[in-house]
Amino acid sequence: MTAYEHMTNMCAIGKRNAGFGGDLKAAAYIEKAFNDLRLKQVRRQRFACYGWDFTDCKLAVHHNGQKKIIPSLPCYHSPSTPAGGVHGEYVYLDSPDAPEAAWKKTEAKILIINQEFLESAALYDKFDRYKPAAVLYVCASRSGVFVGTMDRHIVRGRRALPAAGIEYADAAAIAAEGADALNLIIDAAFIENTYSENVLARVETPGAKKNIILGAHFDTIPLPHCATDNTAGMAVILDAAEKLAGCTLKNYNVDLIAFSAEEIDRQGAADYIVKNAEAIKNSVLMIYIDGCGVHIGRNHIRVIGDEKTEKFLQDAADNTGYPVSTSRGVSYLDHGYVASMGVPAAYLFRGHLNDWHTVNDVPENVSAKQLDAMSDYLANAVLALDGLDAYPNWKIDPATLDKLNKDIASFRIK
Ligand SMILES: [Zn+2]
């Protein structure tokens, strides 16, 4: 089966947000695909997690007796609004240091805030003091987007505020034309005690002592499709597994990991590194895919590791005829968790697509040719590594490792 077919099959499942059932259907699909390839150690690893879902999000702008619906999506972890929604005037804040006057009496009002301010402590303080009824984050160019950081602080750590994202152009129109009132309706559910499943498999090489890890996440935000983020990436892993299952390797097992719950605080990765520590420690490299397959884009590899790792991955691309640029630096998708175990980890993507985390992330955005080229690259990189005379001595420097571990510990919601 081609990568593109795997992608459309998984997209057809619908929403696959962790803990709500669609994720388990996708896990079963991936498990079957691994079994169809006759891979070894195929298994689902269940883990306890929390989950979040929504069924409705509607923003209406009332002005001069007219009502206009603006596209919006709730922020992750947003609570539902009260029945009938939050209805009130809006206050537009163009800076977290906006004068106090702009913040006063926000109790019944909806704040419109530029997304740039997400991590401002001054902003949290003002939320606490002036208690707005709801908040709308303005996002650069996406038509309604999940905002993944600030909302968590507000909901889990502080006050539970209904929060949604709107597009810049819509916010600008509200500011320019004015509005008598906004009405925000969010119907959402947060589940504290649920579970999801990672799916693992191995392309086994008899006698091999070391492993190469290939991974991607298959869960989605609570929207259907999510084609490029990251159904396509998961499909590329399945396709690369098929290509590698047909090869004879000498030195490495290829461990395949399909993560769930990436989109909700990477709970799947946190579980994976605990339950599979031994196999991970015997691995020399991980390659992770998230956000790929778009027709127009740029292939890039971001490496948590040293120059030698980066050079190997670049050379493997050159030899495959796969155009890619590379860089080094820490990033915190699922591969960051594996890197925290001391395994150099590369993040391979093709982007950036402004439709990520929107209803517009559909299969039509994905190029079958790009998926095939990416799985060719993955398989060729694995074969190149297997062909080296000795195990590489690639390292993550201690300061970076320390930072990874500290940052990851701080992500855990207490
Ligand atoms: Zn993703």
Summarize this structure briefly.
The chain has 414 residues and is of the alpha/beta class. It is 34% helix and 29% strand. Zinc ion binds at residues 217, 229-230, 262, 290-291.
Class per helix and strand makeup: alpha/beta
Proportion of helical residues? 25-40%
**Could you tell me the radius of gyration in angstroms?**
22 Å
Task: Quote the distance from N terminus to C terminus.
Answer: 43 Å
* Number of discrete domains: 2
**Multimerization status:** single chain
CATH class of the largest domain: Alpha Beta
Description:
This protein is an alpha/beta fold. The protein folds into two domains: 3-39 and 204-411, Aminopeptidase (3-Layer(aba) Sandwich); 54-188, Glucose Oxidase, domain 1. The chain contains 13 helices and 15 strands. Strands 1, 2, 4, 9, 10, 11, 12, 13, 14 and 15 form a ten-stranded mixed sheet that branches. Strands 3-8-7-6-5 form a five-stranded mixed sheet. Helix 7 crosses helix 12 (368-386). The radius of gyration is 22 Å and the shape is elongated. The model has no long low-confidence stretch (mean pLDDT 91). Residues 217, 229-230, 262, 290-291 line the site of zinc ion (ZN). The site of zinc ion (ZN) has 6 residues, from helix 7.
